[in-house]
Amino acid sequence: MAVKVTRPSAPNRVQVPADCVNALAVGAADSPDTPWLRASYSSVGPGRSPGLIKPDLVAFGGSTARPFLVLRTKDAPKIEPTGGTSFAAPSALRMGTGVRAHLGASLSPLAIRALLVHCAEAADIPHTEIGWGRLAQHLGDLVVCADDTVRVVYQGTVTASKYIRAPIPVPDVPFEGMVNVKATLCYATDIDPHHPATTRGPVSSDLPAQQERVQGR
Fold it and tell me: What is the pTM of this model?
């Protein structure tokens, strides 16, 4: 599920349902180009534990300087400038469905979500404003790797206190220099069906984050 994140005036914290730990919360960026910032109307985090990083990411939603252009069909059809997270969230959903169409049913919705987050464009902006970054601009940025990059998706089920080995493939031939390793872990959290906006049991700050990114060299 993708939900939008809008609250134009203070207090502008992310609210239900955008703080749902198992939903992809999408904020808005003010431009599809560089430089870019969080759109002024887009809500900020943090979310509730264990989904502290909210929004999860941002996508272009339009701004006064760079509006989002839509086709207006009422009366005479014409291009109309507008803006809002109501346009950013469908853009993220469209990109996710594009991944599914390109790679097929082998990827679960959770794996596609991890891929969207993993490939988000980072920026020197607090996580509370843009989450993990701005949504990739093109489908190829998600499903095609650069010549010096390999992207591996692991998915499955693991029970509490257990672990799964995830081997990292490397070339058979020797190579020199540093290797950057980045991992995005995305997993679903149990919820109380009677209170779907909360996690099951007491909400505690020591619960694991529902989505994490790890980098190393």
Answer: 0.82
